[in-house]
Design brief:
This protein is an alpha+beta fold. The strands form 6 sheets. It has a 6-stranded mixed beta sheet with strand order 3-2-4-8-9-12, with helices on both faces. Strands 14, 15, 17, 21, 22 and 24 form a 6-stranded antiparallel beta sheet that branches.
Length: about 475
């Protein structure tokens, strides 16, 4: 569904979240009301900075006709990410408000109280995901629609972004608002005209603001895309999280991501993914985006390297390497060993030609270990009180095994298996030397087109989660 207080358009599987000038305008207006600090920031590694954040996502409204799809999930994923990477800052103070928690009272209190202690050198992030809109009668008054918003009485129920004291008193020289909130383009022509005129005024205001930065998910006249199947987040939020995770840190030796680096990455990624239909916007004083650090990412001297050995054993006990050119018969045994050159988190997933998916590691029923791998320690799968083998079942076709690793714990990787088997397909595993482990769901026959789509989905998911290393092998499985 589109994020606007008037539109009542159902959200299809792949839908638009038309981002509008509206929320960009809301952010501009909000930032204009923030008293800018007098002292200018200088680049630093941020290790002595504290992180303050208020993350708001509203997908479920008291007025159910306003309900959205991914707004709450976007805020929750942002929260999980900041919790994970908080160790890179001196200290973190993060407040998450989603759905029923995101009332007008709670959001106002969080912004006013939770962010007030931030110092000049601290980083402040405000993330807003949901509906935004102007009052239908007084078009110069704009609101962020909290969970308890009443479209007939926004003045008394929604968060007024024109309240002069809302952001006052935040001293940080790095205050960043990120808006993935939008409207549907269903404004009357009068409201559209009013919004455009007001936005022009505030664009000029930002030329004089210091230490205040606003990111909007698109230009005022564009739509904002979301695809729950592909990213699990809006396209814009996906690149926001991936950029902060380290993808935007390509010019810094100490892991610092400047406002400009971040914007360029999110802009290029979103624009490419939407084929130029969506162009995120940055609003900042001239020259300040280049020099202002906003986040930190881990820095490693070398890429993560993992040595992986795929092996097969025949009925005579002879062990041979398993390669992409191999052809194995039902009943033959396979196993894999791997060793990482640095501490990391590893996930191993097996897909067959029927689209059945199973997780080899971590999986306490099949092997030892919880996914955390220490540098230089060799592991063999399956291993449970001894070295064993997986045994190929009777389902012929192409078998594919993926090993995906990340230096830091990555919630997206941890969710990968759940997403892949969400269709109800889960493969059986037979283990040589251990009691068979069999899941109840039997193999289902899929068309060639369906099989291809499933494999493409797997490949895409690996790209989406931002793995530091991904290795796969595909081999043929035939009848005896």
């Amino acid at each position: 569904m589109n994020r606007f207080l008037i539109a009542k358009i159902p959200c299809p599987k792949f839908c638009l979240r038309p981002t509008v000038m509206l929320m960009s305008f809301i952010l501009l207006l909000s930032l204009w009301l923030i008293t800018p600090p007098a002292v200018q920031a200088t680049p630093q590694d941020l290790s002595n900075s504290e992180l303050y954040a208020v993350l708001v996502g509203v997908a479920n409204y008291r007025d159910t006709s306003l309900n959205l799809k991914l707004s709450a999930r976007d805020a929750q994923d942002f929260y999980a990410f900041l919790q994970e990477r908080g160790k890179l800052f001196k200290k973190t103070h993060i407040r998450l408000l989603v759905n029923e928690q995101a009332t007008r009272e709670n959001v106002t209190k969080a912004i006013r109280d939770d962010l007030k202690p931030a110092g000049k050198d601290d980083v402040v992030i405000i993330f807003l995901s949901g509906h935004g809109g102007p009052d239908a009668v007084r078009t110069d008054e704009f609101y962020f629609l909290t969970h308890d918003a009443d479209r007939e009485n926004l003045f008394g129920s929604a968060l007024p972004m024109t309240t002069s004291g809302l952001f006052k008193g935040i001293d940080s020289d790095r205050l960043i608002l990120i808006s993935d909130a939008c409207h549907s383009g269903a404004f009357s022509s009068a409201l559209d005209k009013s919004s455009a005129k007001a936005a022009d005024i505030f664009f000029s205001v930002f030329k004089n603001l210091q230490g205040r930065f606003a990111f909007a998910s698109s230009r005022p006249d564009e739509s904002s895309w979301e695809d729950a199947e592909k990213f699990g987040n809006s396209t814009f939020t996906h690149f926001v999280l991936k950029g902060l995770r380290g993808a935007a840190c390509n010019k810094s030796s100490n892991g610092v991501i400047t406002v400009k680096d971040f914007y360029e990455y999110v802009y290029q990624g979103t624009r490419a993914e939407t084929k130029g239909k969506q162009n995120p916007q940055l609003y900042a004083a001239k020259g300040r985006a280049d020099e202002t650090p906003m986040f930190r990412a881990p820095v490693y001297n070398n890429p993560l390297n993992i040595k992986v050995y795929f092996m097969t054993q025949d009925d005579d006990g002879e062990v041979k390497p398993l390669t992409n050119d191999s052809t194995l018969k039902s009943g033959q045994r396979i196993g894999l060993g791997f060793q990482a050159d640095a501490d990391c988190y590893v996930h191993v997933v097996w897909w067959d030609s029927n689209g059945n998916v199973g997780r080899l590691f971590p999986n306490p029923k099949l092997t030892e270990g919880n996914g955390e791998v220490k540098a230089g320690v060799p592991l063999w799968l399956p291993y449970k009180q001894g070295k064993h083998w997986y045994v190929l079942d009777k389902n012929e076709g192409e078998e594919t095994i993926y090993l995906v690793a990340s230096r830091e714990r990555n919630p997206k990787l941890e969710e990968l298996y759940t997403k892949l088997k969400s269709s109800g397909l889960e493969r059986e595993f037979n283990l040589m030397g251990i009691e068979d482990y069999t899941v109840p769901e039997k193999a289902k026959q899929l068309s060639g087109k369906d099989k291809q789509q499933l494999f493409e989905k797997m490949e895409n998911q690996i790209k989406v989660v931002g793995a530091d290393s991904a290795i796969s092998i595909k081999f043929k499985h035939v009848a005896p």
